[in-house]
Fold:
Amino acid sequence: MSLHSDTHKELNHVLTSLLTSINQFFLHARICKDWGLNTLDQVFYKKSIADMKHADDLIERILMLGGLPNLQQLDRLLIGESPEEVLSCNVRFLGHQHERIKTAIGLCETAQDYVSRDLLCRILDEEEEAIDWHETQHSLIKDTGLKNYLQSQTGA
Structure:
């Protein structure tokens, strides 16, 4: 297998993760909106839109490299049934996504595909910000209590 086909394969793995992320964060946004947690709704909605833009960039890159983007594959969605569970599911998902992107970056380095590597590094930076934000939310729940945290997320 050539380095280019390995790169296409790995970029498609990241694309699968982004497509899954779009769905997970969009559904979590709408669940939080239904619960009246408007701040969480907006954060998760913006994350899903950002992932859509990243997926678009990745699709263009795969096509430019002569590959075929696979939009038919999704990973399993991790959907929470309570606000705490939503945050925990997102953290688990983001951790898996972080590792997948780091693996792809390593392969791009080996293949000397620095344009793809730079694209993935930009995506990785945003994923690390999302992980940090979610970890902060868990700290806020611990420090202020769930009831006070949820009240702060209503946007009222």
Observations:
- The radius of gyration is 17 Å.
